[in-house]
Design goal:
two-stranded antiparallel sheet, 3-stranded antiparallel β-sheet, mainly alpha, 5 strands, 3 domains
Length: about 650
């Protein structure tokens, strides 16, 4: 009995955390941030109940499938022994997480909670995605090999799609698009909206009959999963659709474009139908035009199998593109942007391959120069650029007269980064390492003196967080050259290879010539999105705590995923997760707590002046000395970089 209790207690506690503690914490978070989100939220007991019930049912079906087909409990720490693709898993890849996200949205609508809908629910979705990409997927591939990939993986691409695969596209692609687009429409017109109409477009007539090809987009896209002829065509349609969602919806959030439909008086049935399409939400999420993107993706899928089929369907897509303008629903720039977006989505694989090629060149570009006992290494230039940009942004946000605060933030961050790395990763082989989390802690400490000048501490922290993505993103270029933060070996994904003997990848990890994950590139791209998102929050005059908290949330989830693919041999693993994954989880929790704190709106003006550039240049010079200049003949501590 005692043995049974010992074996069941961890599972009971684990289940209690995710069934009771996490939902309670999310409710508390939503209530604590009730006044922080200045956005409208629909309040509907009926629709909230329906969505919450649907989410709960999907999650329960997922749990039942794991129990019946997997022979175990729905717990990451105690996973089922068998891989599951049956039941609801045949339609939805991650039904438990998907259902939980839908339930969170339903509860938020039930109570009319803006913070629940626009902060908590997206955070839950992001955290769920991070858990899948940063833990579950690597774990499944390690335990089940290639079986853990797509259920289409082993099928003949030229065979006819099964009914299950056809219908799964509705749940995994089209329904998420509908929900995401609905959320964009609910956000409404941006307060700082900018139109994409050119002056002459106000005089263009609205051709009512072109509503027919414009509206046909909805029907055709809905029918594509049923009409497409091959598994390869269906797979490509699903992949391009998901890629378009991931690529375009962040643009709708980041770009303040609003394109109100051109007015007209209906005179035909088509005109009346066109008028029905015009709602108070029309004009939101119009640039780039998803009508154009979906029409071209559908044409690509339906045009396979013959020259005339391609001509027919691409001709239809061109007609849809023209109708976007002639119906008055889009501007010409919307349509052009949609065509460019489609080209980027279709060529995303080539773009990624080219990006990795450039990254590999940088990774093997180590150069050094000797001046007597001093050695100058080229990768220090990237750290100098990162510090210059970061300190320039911080000083510009703090405003004139606070240069000494900027300098204090920088110096404390350097000291914190050095101490952190020595404490966590220090070894004879890592002679002068620098740690990001130590740098952030040092920067926070360095911001405290701002209080003595009457500067709100939250403003200082928000300024640090606004600059942090650009500091880390540019700094990752140094990581590429030095070989720190490198990925682990991969055979299933494209990566990069190191050959320079000075790199840590070759010298410490012994992975010379081996294809490894380009984790610094992952970090650069994610930090770029974070930086743009925070700038958008600044434009919208969000509170300093919301800006700082969202940075911690986004940074933590990104680092959790990135760490799963990193391969530094010195990083410890604790209870199934790498050390920095645990720290990333704490970062996410800290971010949620910070968003609940009260602070005034953050002034978004960047006050660039000569002193800002001067202090930033000085910080950049110090950063190059710390990270790219050493004394290789010396045996003193911190004297050498390699």
């Amino acid at each position: 009995m005692e043995t049974l209790i010992r074996s069941s207690l961890p599972k009971l506690l684990y289940g209690l955390v995710f069934v009771a503690v996490v939902p309670a914490a999310l409710v508390l978070w939503a209530n604590s941030t009730a006044g922080a989100i200045h956005l409208a939220a629909p309040h509907s007991i009926l629709w909230g109940t329906v969505l919450a019930a649907i989410g709960v049912v999907i999650s329960l079906f997922g749990m039942m499938s794991l129990w019946i087909y997997g022979g175990g409990l729905p717990m990451n720490a105690f996973p089922p022994p068998r891989f599951v693709q049956q039941g609801v898993y045949g339609l939805i890849p991650h039904p438990i997480y998907s259902g939980f996200v839908v339930a969170c949205g339903g509860v938020s609508i039930f109570f009319g909670s803006a913070s629940g809908l626009w902060l908590v629910t997206p955070s839950v979705a992001l955290a769920s995605a991070a858990l899948v990409l940063g833990y579950e997927l690597p774990d499944l591939r390690e335990r089940f090999g290639s079986r853990a990939g797509s259920s289409w993986q082993a099928l003949d691409p030229s065979s006819s799609p099964s009914a299950l695969h056809r219908f799964s596209v509705y749940f995994t692609v089209l329904l998420p698009w509908l929900m995401a687009f609905g959320a964009i429409m609910l956000l409404g017109k941006p307060v700082d909206a900018v139109t994409t109409y050119m002056p002459f477009e106000a005089h263009l007539p609205v051709l009512e009959w072109t509503e027919l090809p414009y509206a046909s987009t909805y029907l055709v896209v809905l029918l594509v999963p049923l009409l497409v002829q091959t598994e390869n065509g269906l797979r490509r349609f699903a992949r391009l659709g998901l890629t378009a969602i991931l690529f375009l919806f962040p643009l709708y959030l980041l770009l303040p474009f609003f394109v109100p439909p051109r007015p007209f008086t209906p005179e035909t049935v088509a005109g009346s139908l066109l008028l029905c399409e015009r709602t108070s939400y029309s004009g939101v999420g119009a640039f780039p035009s998803f009508h154009v993107v979906w029409a071209l993706i559908a044409a690509l899928a339906l045009g396979e199998g013959g020259h005339w089929r391609r001509i027919l369907w691409y001709g239809w897509a061109a007609l849809v593109a023209v109708s976007c303008v002639t119906t008055g629903m889009h501007s010409i720039l919307d349509v052009l942007a949609g065509a460019i977006a489609f080209a980027l989505v279709v060529n995303m694989g080539r773009i990624w391959t080219a990006t990795l090629g450039y990254a590999e060149r940088i990774a093997n570009s180590w150069k050094e120069w000797r001046i007597g006992a001093v050695r100058i290494i080229n990768h220090g230039g990237y750290a100098a650029a990162a510090s210059f940009v970061g300190m320039l942004l911080i000083d510009a946000l703090l405003g004139p007269g606070h240069e000494w605060v900027t300098a204090c933030i920088f110096l404390c961050s350097i000291v914190g980064a050095a101490f952190w790395a020595q404490w966590v990763e220090g070894s004879p082989a890592l002679l002068r390492p620098m740690g990001f989390y130590g740098g952030m802690a040092g920067a926070i400490i360095g911001a405290i003196p701002a209080l003595f000048q009457g500067v709100n501490l939250w403003f200082s922290l928000a300024a640090i967080c606004t600059a942090a993505p650009w500091i880390q993103g540019l700094g990752r270029l140094r990581c590429l050259v030095q070989g720190c933060c490198h990925g682990r070996a991969t055979e299933t994904a494209e990566g990069i290879r190191y050959s320079h003997p000075r790199s840590r990848v070759c010298r410490l990890a012994h992975l010379a010539g081996v294809t490894i994950h380009a984790t610094p590139v992952y970090s650069i791209l994610w930090n770029a999105w974070i930086g743009l998102a925070l700038y958008r929050l600044l434009q919208l005059h969000m509170s300093a705590t919301l800006i700082a908290g969202i940075y911690l949330l986004l940074s933590g989830t990104g680092r959790f995923v990135e760490e799963a693919y990193r391969g530094e041999p010195q990083t410890r693993t604790l209870y199934g997760l790498r050390l920095y994954q645990w720290i990333a989880i704490l970062t996410v929790v800290a971010g949620a707590a910070v968003t609940a704190a009260k602070a005034p709106p953050m002034p978004h003006e960047f006050n660039f002046n000569i002193s800002s550039f001067a202090i930033a240049a000085g910080c950049g010079a110090v950063a190059w000395f710390v990270t790219g200049i050493d004394f290789p003949e010396s045996s003193r501590r911190f004297a050498r970089l390699t």
